[in-house]
């Protein structure tokens, strides 16, 4: 058996070979899959069947690259000395160490929905700002009505009619009442509200049959908040209720961390737009749709570029055009050591993006770093987030979120780059484990991880030795227990994207566990809310 270690072909040779073998790569331990969605059988880790049968002789490409954060040596790194794979925790720590919250911007309140506060919000006035009625009824002096009942009703004259929003403040003297609507200011002299249901609803005089309790149905000024009180703390996401709280506090603008703008790119000459006819060797591009939806669910603004072919120059030019217009780029495919691994070929020589294996299944080959920084004036570098940026597609749909001072020279940090495996399940697991926490940190959120629960395994499966496994499962209630059932008969096969649509969670199997049996308790990462 060969080692799976192949030198990278020159670009012209790669193009020639693509014409003869349109995008299919047969890996030692997996069925043939199109190259844009293949993990290229990851080296150093036997297949599930090999673990079960005790055969571990096959190596899998991708292990040899190690975790280099520098450009490869001349001749490529396909056969470089093996390096220790990072654990999931180590890789996540490596990612988060390079991620911080985006600089805050001040936005009108109605443009800040879903964003995260970068400063506390204080009440500008008492809330409510004046004593007011909590009911439609009559503002009264309680002492005038202590003896009212069905048998002995009390009739009093109505001296005013007060609607919500009125500035009138008639004095309610002894033996008088004022008709009042909900929210209207309590008139001087009144000390209680009689609900309209306890009267004959008279307009010029009113018959009252139930005496009010002390201060009945009166909302006092400052009941909700006093001027200067903290209404919302920094770090909270502005959901509708919090938008309402900020507005009630007299706030018109808020300082927030902007939503990260994320370009999503699939690589692979075999990928076509879903719905278009396919020939032999072609498949629909699902990854760009899957990952764009994941970006949006995580709170980001997704720019779905779609699929690009396995061509170094095309990808390089696209990435260069995106620099300065987005905060992050998520690529899928081309991150192992195959002959057509265009992402690694383009990014590794930059010296700012590292590649290497992570001890997880699926999703072992990973790449992370930044596009190199650019230096120049905003006019040269392009204003982030605006249409018409040089080299950028004409209409990105990304809103402007602030720009540098005109004419000021600046070093513009390159966008974060996440290079994920090409198989859809691998790409999605990688997004959930590494990209989503990073996007949440960029938004200024303190809680980065999905919630987890403990669940009882309904049907068992095997797990590769030395790798944390993320098994797509469906969560079911079973009395007072939570059950985890595999979402697909094929288990965690990294190409099973249709079955992934049934999953609501990932069962996380530790590195040292090679077999999960029915009745075991596992930690489950909840990824989807119930319909």
Automatic annotation (TrEMBL):
Residues annotated as domain MoaB/Mog: 263-441
This enzyme's EC code(s): 2.10.1.1
Keyword Magnesium: yes
Pathway, per record: Cofactor biosynthesis; molybdopterin biosynthesis
Record's compositionally biased regions (Basic residues): 8-21
SMART domains assigned to the protein according to its UniProt record, in alphabetical order: MoCF_biosynth
Reaction(s) catalysed (UniProt annotation): adenylyl-molybdopterin + molybdate = Mo-molybdopterin + AMP + H(+)
GO biological-process terms attached to the record: Mo-molybdopterin cofactor biosynthetic process
Biased composition annotated in UniProt, kind: Basic and acidic residues: 30-42, 49-70
Cleavable signal peptide: none
CDD domains: MoeA
Cofactor(s) recorded in Swiss-Prot or TrEMBL: Mg(2+)
Keywords per UniProt: Magnesium, Metal-binding, Molybdenum, Molybdenum cofactor biosynthesis, Transferase
Domain of life where this protein originates: Bacteria
GO CC terms: cytosol
GO molecular function: metal ion binding; molybdopterin molybdotransferase activity
Segments for region (Disordered): 1-79
Function of the molecule: Catalyzes the insertion of molybdate into adenylated molybdopterin with the concomitant release of AMP.
Recorded family membership: Belongs to the MoeA family.
NCBIfam families: Glp_gephyrin (NF045515), molyb_syn (TIGR00177)
Name of this protein: Molybdopterin molybdenumtransferase
């Amino acid at each position: 058996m060969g080692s799976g270690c192949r030198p990278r072909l020159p670009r012209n040779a790669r193009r020639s070979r693509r014409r003869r073998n349109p995008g299919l790569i047969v890996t030692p331990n997996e069925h043939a899959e199109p190259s844009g969605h293949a993990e290229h059988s990851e080296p150093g880790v036997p297949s599930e069947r090999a673990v079960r049968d005790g055969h571990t002789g096959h190596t899998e490409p991708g292990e040899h690259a190690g975790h280099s954060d520098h450009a490869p040596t001349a001749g490529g790194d396909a056969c470089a000395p093996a390096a220790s794979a990072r654990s999931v925790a180590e890789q996540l720590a490596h990612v988060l160490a390079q991620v911080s919250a985006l600089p805050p911007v001040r936005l009108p309140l109605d443009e800040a929905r879903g964003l995260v506060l970068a400063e506390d919000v204080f009440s500008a006035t008492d809330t409510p700002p004046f004593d007011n009625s909590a009911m439609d009824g009559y503002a009264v002096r309680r002492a005038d009505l202590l003896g009212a009942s069905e048998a002995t009703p009390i009739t009093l004259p109505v001296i005013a009619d007060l609607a919500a929003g009125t500035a009138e403040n008639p004095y309610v003297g002894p033996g008088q009442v004022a008709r009042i609507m909900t929210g209207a200011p309590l008139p001087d002299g009144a000390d209680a509200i009689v609900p309209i249901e306890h009267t004959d609803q008279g307009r010029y005089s009113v018959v009252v049959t139930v005496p009010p309790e002390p201060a009945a149905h009166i909302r006092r000024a400052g009941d909700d908040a006093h001027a200067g009180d903290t209404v919302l703390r920094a770090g909270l996401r502005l959901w509708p209720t919090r938008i309402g709280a900020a507005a009630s506090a007299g706030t018109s603008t808020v300082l927030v961390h902007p939503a990260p703008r994320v370009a999503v790119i699939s690589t692979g000459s075999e990928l076509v737009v879903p719905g278009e006819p396919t020939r032999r060797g072609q498949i629909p591009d699902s990854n760009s749709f899957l990952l764009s939806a994941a970006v949006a669910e995580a709170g980001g603004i997704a720019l779905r570029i779609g699929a690009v072919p396995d061509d170094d120059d095309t990808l390089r030019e696209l990435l260069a055009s995106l620099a300065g217009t987005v905060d992050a780029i998520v690529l899928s495919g081309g991150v192992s050591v195959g002959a057509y691994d265009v992402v690694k070929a383009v990014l590794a020589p930059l010296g700012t993006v590292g590649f290497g294996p992570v001890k997880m299944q699926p999703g072992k080959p990973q790449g992370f770093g930044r596009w190199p920084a650019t230096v120049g004036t905003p006019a040269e570098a392009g204003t982030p987030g605006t249409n018409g940026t040089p080299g950028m597609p004409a209409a990105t749909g990304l809103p402007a979120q602030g720009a540098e001072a005109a004419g000021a020279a600046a070093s513009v940090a390159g966008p974060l780059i996440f290079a994920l495996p090409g198989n859809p399940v691998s790409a999605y697991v990688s997004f959930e484990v590494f990209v989503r926490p990073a996007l949440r940190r960029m938004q200024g959120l303190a809680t980065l991880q999905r919630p987890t629960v403990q669940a009882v395994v309904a049907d068992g499966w095997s797990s590769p030795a030395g790798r944390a496994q993320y098994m797509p499962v469906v969560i079911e209630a079973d009395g007072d227990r939570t059950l985890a059932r595999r979402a697909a008969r094929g288990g965690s096969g990294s190409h099973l994207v249709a079955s992934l649509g049934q999953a609501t969670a990932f069962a996380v199997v530790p590195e040292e566990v090679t077999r999960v049996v029915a009745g075991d308790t596992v930690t489950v990462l909840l990824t989807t809310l119930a319909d």
